[in-house]
Amino acid sequence: METLTNDKATLEVQLSTQQKLIANMREELGICKEHKAMAESQSESRGAHLLELKAQLEDAVLSLEAAERRMHDGELMRRRLHNTIQELKGNIRVFCRVRPMSSLEQVGADPDIQPALDFPPSDDLLSAGIILSAPSRDGAATLSKHVFAFDRVFTPEASQDAVFEEISELVQSALDGHKVCIFAYGQTGSGKTFTMLGSEEQPGMIPRSMRQIFESSQGLRQQGWELSLQASMLEIYNEEYKDLLSSKKLSGSNKSTKEGFGSQQPSGEIKKHQVVHNPDGSTTVSELTVVDITQASQVDLLLAQAMEKRSVGCTALNEQSSRSHMVFTLRLEGVNEAKGKRVSGVLNLIDLAGSERVKDSGAAGLRMKEAQAINTSLSALGDVIVALGNKQPHIPFRNSKLTYLLQPCLGGDAKTLMFVNVAPNIQFAGESLCSLRFAAKVNACEINHRKKG
């Protein structure tokens, strides 16, 4: 009996222990069920949140795609509107710029002599006037007044900033894939080279154009565009092409370029540059150095190198007269892989040789030959522009090396701007009159669009 009693007590203790254990396990099971329920609830909540996030992401992707389409369509619309505005302004425009008097000219100026130029106010928003007082042909003491009207007239006080503001739209046209030519024309010593190249303190149109292009390229990159730039510089001296960026005189250091695409040439004797116009509208110039441009400051170095090689000479009108046309050509290639788009533009900035009347410049010998080549070339340029404006069946591009080189960039939907630079002095009134008459002939032309009066 005692054994059974002991066994019963032991079993009761074990039963109590098991009951406590079962109670604890049931309690833990309840907690686990609660955790499970909470986890399932959280999972459902997170799943719903995940689905919501996925839906938001899909909406965001669709919104982004729609925004990109709108941005792309907006860019296309901007380009079309920009081009329409440029065409309404005229695919060929003429700006007149009057340089200020130099310090030496100011010292020697006679206060009793009236200025050679006057700038009457104009109510015409599309043109501006300038009046030139020049000695009469009959030798009388009286002055004859000659009135001209151009798209813009810049007085001697006009800054480089103000001048570039007017041509920046044409730089944008080149970025948009058009061919653009900007000329600086005028007598020797009238400020053409300053307009185009400027100085370190007052950069000219070429360095400012490069600055604008690189600033614009940042925005284009955000739109998926990659822009590549290639530059070349040559001069036309006595109707011969000369590479201004060649590191050597021999052709072994030169390159062949298709409006900027080059390949190394074998060394050998000096070769003449050959210009070939291709069916796709591009131009090939043999033996011409081309440079890939990755930053605007590169162009400053190229300009300095080119100016060291450019042909200059002393005349009675200017001690450092440019005796050649200098042509800076920048080819712009834009590619948007995502949209499958490509644009190709060309920007030509030309510092023309100074026009001059031989009897005034005192040219003789070599200077006489240079002056004749310069004047013949400038006359040919005017003839081409007039022929384009009159829609003549034959355009005399081959009459000069300059017009033949620039043939694809003149006429059609190309954009052309000519600066006529004049001096303010009465002693240069005869030369200024010739320059203004030439510019007026160009300004009267219409190429494809707005007629000028």
TrEMBL record:
It comes from the Eukaryota. InterPro entries: Kinesin-like_fam (IPR027640), Kinesin_motor_CS (IPR019821), Kinesin_motor_dom (IPR001752), Kinesin_motor_dom_sf (IPR036961), P-loop_NTPase (IPR027417). Residues 91-445 form the Kinesin motor domain. GO terms for cellular component: microtubule. GO terms for molecular function: ATP binding; microtubule binding; microtubule motor activity. PROSITE patterns: KINESIN_MOTOR_1, KINESIN_MOTOR_2. This is Kinesin-like protein.
